[in-house]
Amino acid sequence: MSAVTVLIPTLLRPLVEDRSAVEVPVDAPATVSAVLDALSEGRPVLARRIRDETGALRRYVNVYVDGEDVRRVDGLATSVTPGSEVMIIQSVAGG
Amino acid sequence: METTVIAIGTKKGLWLATSTDRQNWTLSQPHHLMSEIPSIGIDTRGGRTRILVGMMDWHWGPTVVYSDDLGSTWSEPEQGAIKFAESDETALGRIWQLQPDSEDRPGVVWAGCEPISVWKSTDGGQHFELNRGLWDHPHRSEWGAGFGGAAAHTVIPHPVDDTVHVAMSTGGVYRSIDGGQSWEPRNKGISAYFMPDPNPEFGQCVHKIARDSENPERLYAQNHHGVYRSDDGAETWESIADGLPADFGFVMLSHPRRGGTAWVIPLKADGERIPPDARLAVHRTDDAGATWTRLDNGLPSSEYNAVLRDAAGVDTAEPVGVYFGTRGGTVYASADEGQTFTEVAAHLPDVLCVRAAVVVGATAPVPSP
């Protein structure tokens, strides 16, 4: 078991005890999906903010692994290695 | 002293206005700023005022929250009040309607959503179950999307029996007579001029329906062109548009106690979605649509903004209060059934939903501006 760091956007920090980063334990090799599962453990509201009930990443939520947009890699199946930095960030939306 | 609350859902948050005389209103600070608020239900049953809100955040998705203390605190069911099962392979898009049922069915709240679906809660709106009868309906693949999306936007349960009427865009009116087990389209007499067959069994773009308070078999419908009444539980519809300046619009309100009384807010046409001649007016009928009275006292002499389908509501006071908001962010209130209007708020974001109620039960102090 090792850990990755998940960076939390400001608007979601109230759902993670106001932290800007959360260390998430994962079994290597892991995927973004597994990291989000671990992050969401015991945090059902946070889980719904990031992914919808089909498990898909919400359209205007982006996830980067070590600076790479996972939508340009393998989506939620993108691999995450121990020590990686996973960034959750809202994309441009609204009017 | 009675307090009346208006809940104003906009494209960028929720405002609450309160008044003890329905003339002078105190507007709250915004709640849920930056979230769209397309649906509100004020549930005053059981000696408590619960404000249920269907929110939509473009980033973080749709959710239901509620407040039992006039907005001092909000609660969000942890697991999400409305969500599809994994096996449904779809996700909730938007909550278009939150409709408390009658006094005799405490705790029952209906929701209409996008994708086209109807949901029922029996615990006051904390958890809703998908209505499988409508979800599995064989017509589903033929229902379309109006400009605002494909949604069940109106759910009106019968006050006494197990009938429920649903209106969807686009699909038309559907009725269940068995509490939602099975559903049949009920659009006979309603035109769908935008389809190859202008009189289809279903597919109409109904904008809003309302039930008559004295005769529950009587319904009123504002369609995408066309204003109609049914006297037989939606078996057949007939036009009641004569006497209105236009048959387009989104709003249909019925009086909470007096039969035959309903309000519409006409817009000129599909292709010209402004008040006719830019003169905003509410029209009321007191004879079930035989005649209409134009009501514009207190409304601006020139207004180019539309009023959306849920951006209007009534309270239950005597005389009944009528409330509505425009896409230009102005909200009007009438304490005399529409005879005169006063401005409650202006320069808000686009108003999507307006609901009003006389507050019951212990609540927090009226929020200060």
Keyword list:
heterodimer; A: 95 residues; alpha+beta; Ubiquitin-like (UB roll); 5-stranded mixed β-sheet; two-stranded antiparallel ribbon; 2 helices; 31% strand; globular; B: 369 residues; mainly beta; Methylamine Dehydrogenase, Chain H; 4-stranded antiparallel β-sheet; 1 helix; 1% helix
List the helices and strands and how they pair.
The complex is a heterodimer of chains A (95) and B (369).
Chain A: E1 2-7, E2 21-26, E3 30-31, H1 32-40, H2 44-50, E4 61-65, E5 68-69, E6 79-80, E7 85-90
Parallel strand pairs in A: 1-7
Antiparallel strand pairs in A: 1-2, 3-6, 4-5, 4-7
Chain B: E1 4-10, E2 13-19, E3 26-27, E4 36-43, E5 50-57, E6 61-67, E7 94-100, E8 109-114, E9 117-121, E10 128-130, H1 132-135, E11 151-157, E12 164-169, E13 172-176, E14 184-185, E15 206-211, E16 219-223, E17 227-230, E18 238-239, E19 248-249, E20 253-254, E21 262-264, E22 266-267, E23 282-285, E24 293-295, E25 312-314, E26 322-325, E27 331-334, E28 342-345, E29 351-358
Residue share in helices of chain A?
10-25%
CATH topology grouping of chain B: Methylamine Dehydrogenase, Chain H
Spell out the CATH superfamily of chain A. Beta-grasp domain
Quick one: how many beta strands of chain B?
Answer: 29
Strand content bin of chain A:
25-35%
Which strand order spans the largest sheet of chain B, edge to edge or round the barrel?
3-2-1-29
Task: Profile the largest sheet of chain B.
Answer: 4 strands, antiparallel
- Average pLDDT score of chain A: 94
Q: Detail the poorly predicted runs of chain A.
A: none
Please give the count of helices of chain A.
2
Going by CATH, the architecture of chain B would be 7 Propeller
Judged by helices, strands and strand pairing, the structural class of chain B is: mainly beta
Label the overall shape of chain B: globular
Tally of DSSP β-strands of chain A:
7
